Amino acid sequence: MLAQVIAGGLSAGSIYALVALALVITYKTTEVPNFAQGEMAMVSAFVAYILMTDYQTGFFVAFSVALVFAFVLGIGFEAVILRRVRNPTHLSVLVVTLGFQLALFGLAGWKWGAEQRQFPFPVSANEVIRVGDVSVSTLGVATILISVVLMVGVFAFFRFTKLGVAMQATQQDSMAARINGVPTRRVVGLTFGISSVIGAVAALLMAPVITLDTTLMWDPLLKGFAAAVLGGLNTPVGAVLGGYLLGLVENLFGAYISVEFKSAVAFLMIILVLCFRPSGLFGRHRTRKV
Amino acid sequence: MDNPVSPRDAASSPDGANSSSRAGAPNGASAPVGADARAVGEVLLEIQGVETYYGPLRALSDVSLTVTEGTVTVILGSNGAGKSTLLGTIMGVLDGQPQCGTITFGGERIDGMATEKIVRTGISYVPEGRRVFPELSVRENLAVGAYTVRDRQSTRRTLDRVYDYFPLLADRQTQPAGTLSGGEQQMLAIGRALMNGPRLLLLDEPSLGLAPILVRQVFDIISQICDEGVTVLLVEQNARMALKVADDGVVLENGELVVSGTAQELADNDEVEELYMGTASTTSELGTAPYSSEQGARHDVDQES
Fold first, then answer.
1. Residue of B195, B243, B298, B210 whose CA lies nearest to B74
2. C-beta atoms of A182 and B144 within 8 A
3. Which of A100, A238, A279, B220 could form a disulfide with A231 if both were Cys (CB 3.0 to 4.6 A apart)?
4. Is A86 on the interface with B (CB under 8 A)?
C-alpha cells in the first residue's frame, strides 16, 4: 500500500517539479513568478493535439512541434511583451504576466471552447506495470522518466555549458553580465524560451492523465507554484525537490487521512513554510544591495 | 607561465604581451612593450567633448581625455564629481549616453555601441562595488569573464595567469563568490575582467573598503598588469596611492575636467595635494580623500553617491 502511494506521489510530483522548475528559471531573472506559464503550456498542448487530430501527424512529430512552438512563444512573450514594460517594477511585471495569462485563456476558450478532449498518447494511463506489489501505469512511468531526463538535462546545461553559466550570471546581476560581454537581452529571451518548453512538457504529460481543456494547467500551476515556494523560489534544485515532496505528501495525505482535503495540503504546506522558513526549505536567504 | 616578481622593474614577459593583444581587437595593433620602462605607445582611448546626463542633470560636461597605450591613467575627484559616470559612459552601461561627444578606442568609434560589443573591442571593466556573481563559484565567475573568448586553450592560459596574480582565488575555485570577503571579491572582479584579455582595463575604486595591506597589494597588481601590456584607466579616491602607480592623471570636479597632466605634475600640484591627499604626510594611505563640503553637496548629480 505504502509503496503504491509513493509511486503515485512521484508521478504527480514529476509534473509539479517540472512546473516549479519552469517558474523558478524565469523567477530568478525577473523576480516575479510568470503566471502565464500555465496557459502558455496549455496552448502548446493544444498545438500538439491539433496536429495529431486535424493533421494526423504522429505523436512524436506533434510533440516536437509543440515544444518548438513553446520555445518561440516563450521568447516572443519576453521580446514582444515583457521587455516593453517601461520602468519595470515587480508589480507591473506581475500584472503583465497575469494579463498575458488571461489573454491566452480567453483566446483558447474562444478558439477551442470548453469541451474536454481525449489527448492521444503512445502509452496508456490504464495499462499498468507491476513490480512486486506496486502497480504503476505506463503513463506514470513515462512521466517520471521523461521528467527526470529533462530536469537532469536542464541542470547539466546550467552547470556545464558556457551559455548556461552566462544565463545564471545574467539572473544574478544582469549589468555585471553585460560588462563581461554577455548579450543579456538574448540570454533573457532564451531563458523564457527554455522555461516555456519545460512547462509545455509538463502539459503534454498532464493532458493524457486528465483530459485536454483550457483549464488543463490551473491545478498543476498552483501546485507547481506551491512546490517552488516550498523548496525555495531562488533554487531550481530546491523547487524540483519541493515538487516531489509535495506530490508525496499530497498522496500520503490522500491515502491515509482524507481524500477530500488532498488538494488543500499544498496550500497548508505553503503557509507553514512561509511562516517558519520564508526562503523555502532548500533556499538560502540572500540579501540584496539596492 | 612566468610571473614577474617585482611589479615595477620587471620587463613584460612576451607571454603577457601576447595574451593582452589577443583581445580580438579588430585593428589588431599589438601592445608595444618596452624593456626598460613602460613603453609609451599611441593613443588608445580618445574621449572628446563627452556630455552625460541623468535625466535633466548633467553629470559630465565637455570632458575630453586621451589615454596612451601601455600607461596607467588615474581619474581623481571627490564624491559626485562624475568619475564613475565617466567609466560607465565609456562602457556604454548608461542608457542613451553620452548625449554629445565621441569616444574612440583603437581607432574605432565606440560611443553608442552596445556594452557587450564594446567588451569585444577589448575593454574590460571592474565596476564600483565589485559586482561578482554571488551564487556562482569563483571559477564560474572567471568563466563568465571569458565569455567572449572562443579559444579554450587561451582561456586556460589566462586563467593560470589570473591565478598567478591572485593565488588566493586558486584556493577557492569552488567556493561561491558571495561567501568571499570584500578584498577577495575585489580580486575576483579584477581577475574576471582580465579573463577576456583586454587591451584596456577600467577600474572603479579598487581600493574602496579594503584593509591597507590589501590596498597596497591591489595597486601592486595593477602596476604589474600594466607592465604586461594592458592599459589601465583607474578611478580612485586614494590619490596618494594612485599617483604612485599612475603615469598620467586627471582631476574631475563637478563633471568637468579641471586638471590633467602626468602623475608627477599632479602630485606636485598644490591644489590637488590639498584637496585629494590631505595636508602633507599625516594622511594615511587608506583614507579616502577628504573633500570640501561645497563639493560634497553635489552628490545628487552622480549615481555613485
1. B243
2. yes
3. A238
4. no
